[in-house]
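User: hey, got a sec? need RNA polymerase, alpha chain C terminal domain folded
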Amino acid sequence: MAKCLSSICVVSHVVEGDFLKGIIAMPARRALEKEKIDSLEKLSDYSEQEIMQLHGFGKNAMQKLKIYMKENQISFKNN
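Assistant: Yep! Here you go:
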């Protein structure tokens, strides 16, 4: 039964795009997908605090995301 449940879980939580794949963990990527954030440009329309409030986003994901954004010369909007 556990095998069946894990199959269902995997199917229902598939992230369609490759945005930030290999940069941040799946829970954080799913949180962004739920908000329809699929590019760095869209991400720059949000503040760091707004992103941190998303379910699935934590300090580790934010730290990795900020490094990636800095490398690509993108930043969060100011509060």
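Quick note: The chain has a mean pLDDT of 84. Let me know if you need anything else on RNA polymerase, alpha chain C terminal domain.
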